[in-house]
Design a protein that fits this description.
The protein is mainly α and 79 residues long. The chain has a domain at 22-68. The protein has 3 helices and no strands. The longest helix is centred in the middle third of the chain and has 20 residues, at 22-41. It is elongated, with a radius of gyration of 14 Å. It starts with 21 loop residues before the first helix and ends in an 11-residue tail after the last helix. The relative contact order is 0.15. The structure holds zinc ion (ZN). Residues 6, 8-9, 11, 20-21, 23-24 line the site of zinc ion. This is Flagellar protein.
Length: 79
């Protein structure tokens, strides 16, 4: 077991890469932009709502927000 695999696709990382491979870094940027835009219009959206609306999995959103300090409501039962 090691920490040198991509958190998103599981591919082995090259020297100097952290957490994500180059391809997934690009995907993360796109996903983050989509999530941010959605949150601007839906300030009280929950993780589940964001996931359903954007088509991005909850796991990926979680990874992205933990690395990028996006604040969202985490209670999935809140209206
Ligand atoms: Zn990857």
């Amino acid at each position: 077991m090691n920490d040198y695999t991509c958190k998103r696709c599981g591919n082995l990382l090259l020297n100097g890469q952290k957490n994500y491979c180059t391809k997934c870094m690009e995907k993360n940027k796109v996903d983050l932009k989509i999530i941010r835009e959605y949150l601007e219009k839906n300030k009280n959206a929950t993780l589940m709502e964001i996931s359903i609306a954007t088509g991005i999995s909850v796991k990926i959103i979680n990874n992205l927000i933990s690395n990028n300090s996006i604040e969202i409501v985490k209670d999935p039962y809140k209206l």
